[in-house]
């Protein structure tokens, strides 16, 4: 008599990896939704709601300036959350960052405009945007590390790509919400109250995110480090002292990916609708489609990095971006939505080659006791210049009158990121750094 053995089910470690990756994905989706709807509103209505006393160009610059404040706050939030994330744990920081983001976003939805509060309206808007940036500054490092540190060693690129998918999903959710409102409301209704709906909807999303995040366990790698008393008293300062080269190169490797994301998802919404006669709803729908295409690309490139390495993905993506920058803006300038989509898809491929394996690549550069600090600092340093991109693009076109000035800017930052990526150390085979040095210092 032959006995049959049922197929083996995934072990507890694999199930835990999937659960944590899913929780990271949902949480980052909600946080980035909150962060991105500000950019869409800045491109469409904030110049008229909060900066109506100046001419349209200055109003747009002011709205994008308020948008950029969130990126100035991100390194500060990243440093504070990283300090406690490396000392207390990854999970608590993810909960606190989600709460802070939600409170700031709902506050924006309730904030009266310039006609009611006068100059206090833009002041309060900028304050809330600062709090948004502070909260999201702590989000990425915690979500990325939870996914990577729970992942099997041969699948860190793949599982690390899950929280990365939260970015396009958050953008899709936010842009699609604005697209539906834009298509169903009159311009007067949209300006009066319609733009507030996506901000107030964050209340429900934050509740879902909190429920999911409170159900996951702390990173086992971090727990082990705490058991070995490997925590530093000042992990951010220690990371800057121990890993200055790794932090700067990682930040530089991400510069173009981060900057061009905001060029296409924020600045181009304004330029395409105001200067190229694209329909507002059509552009919002096109950006939603492009963001959806990001999801399989990011996960595929994360998985591919587990086979061929992280650095080749980064270098190849930035080389493609540098070569394609001028053709991309030519396609955009034709006024054809189909050519707009074609150009956007190629740019998405270039960026996804970096964004897919980024969580694993950055995490593998630093030891456990300084990993949150090192990875977050690198990510958020790049985010400062990324957040300034819409402002810089507006200024470049105003000064030169040419869209190709923006193309030149993209080529320049793509080359910087390509060189930084080339100079980084490949980590596919070496894996996560151990904490022997940190233990010896304690």
Automatic annotation (TrEMBL):
Which subcellular locations apply to this protein?
A: Cell membrane
Write down a Pfam family by its short name: Sugar_tr
Listed transmembrane segments: 32-51, 63-82, 94-114, 165-185, 197-216, 247-270, 282-304, 313-331, 377-397, 403-424
Q: Which residues form the Major facilitator superfamily (MFS) profile domain?
A: 20-429
Q: How does it sit in the membrane?
A: Multi-pass membrane protein
Presence of keyword Repeat: no
In terms of PROSITE patterns, this protein maps to: MFS
* Gene3D superfamilies for the chain: MFS general substrate transporter like domains
* Protein name, as recorded: MFS transporter
Q: What organism does this protein naturally occur in?
A: Pseudonocardia alni subsp. carboxydivorans
């Amino acid at each position: 008599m032959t006995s049959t053995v049922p197929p083996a089910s995934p072990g507890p470690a694999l199930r835990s990896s999937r659960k944590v990756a899913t929780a990271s994905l949902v949480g980052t989706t909600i946080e980035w939704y909150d962060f991105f709807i500000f950019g869409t509103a800045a491109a469409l209505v904030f110049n008229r709601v909060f900066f109506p006393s100046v001419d349209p160009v200055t109003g747009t610059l002011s709205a994008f300036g308020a948008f950029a404040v969130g990126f100035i706050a991100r390194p500060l939030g990243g440093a504070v959350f990283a300090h406690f994330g490396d000392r207390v744990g990854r999970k608590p920081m993810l909960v606190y960052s989600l709460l802070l983001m939600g409170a700031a976003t709902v506050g924006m939805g309730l904030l009266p405009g310039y006609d009611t509060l006068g100059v206090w309206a833009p002041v309060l808007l900028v304050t809330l945007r600062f709090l948004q940036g502070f909260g999201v500054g702590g989000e990425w490092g915690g979500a990325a590390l939870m996914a990577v540190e729970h992942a099997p060693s041969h699948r860190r690129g793949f599982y690390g790509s899950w929280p990365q998918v939260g970015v396009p999903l958050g953008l899709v959710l936010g842009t699609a919400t604005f697209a539906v409102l834009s298509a169903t409301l009159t311009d007067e209704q949209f300006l009066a109250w319609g733009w507030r709906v996506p901000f107030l909807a964050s209340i429900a999303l934050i509740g879902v995110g909190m429920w999911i995040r409170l159900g996951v366990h702390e990173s086992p790698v971090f727990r082990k480090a705490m058991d070995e008393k490997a925590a530093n008293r000042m992990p951010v300062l220690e990371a800057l002292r121990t890993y200055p080269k790794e932090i700067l190169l990682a930040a530089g490797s991400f510069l173009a990916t981060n900057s061009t994301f905001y060029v296409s998802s924020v600045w181009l919404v304004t330029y395409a609708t105001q200067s190229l006669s694209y329909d507002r709803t059509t552009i919002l729908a096109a950006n939603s489609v492009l963001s959806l295409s990001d999801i399989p690309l990011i996960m595929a490139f994360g998985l591919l990095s587990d086979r061929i390495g992280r650095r080749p993905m980064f270098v190849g993506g930035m080389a493609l971006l540098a070569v394609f920058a001028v053709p991309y803006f030519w396609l955009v300038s034709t006024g054809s939505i189909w050519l707009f989509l074609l150009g956007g898809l190629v740019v998405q491929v270039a960026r996804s080659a970096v964004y897919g394996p980024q969580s694993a690549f950055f995490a593998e550069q630093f030891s456990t006791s300084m990993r949150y600090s090192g990875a977050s600092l690198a990510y958020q340093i790049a985010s400062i210049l990324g957040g300034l991109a819409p402002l810089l693009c507006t200024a470049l076109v105003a000064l030169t009158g040419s869209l190709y000035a923006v193309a030149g800017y993209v080529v320049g930052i793509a080359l910087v990121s390509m060189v930084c990526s080339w100079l980084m150390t490949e980590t596919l085979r070496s894996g996560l750094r151990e904490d022997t040095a940190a233990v010896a210092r304690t």
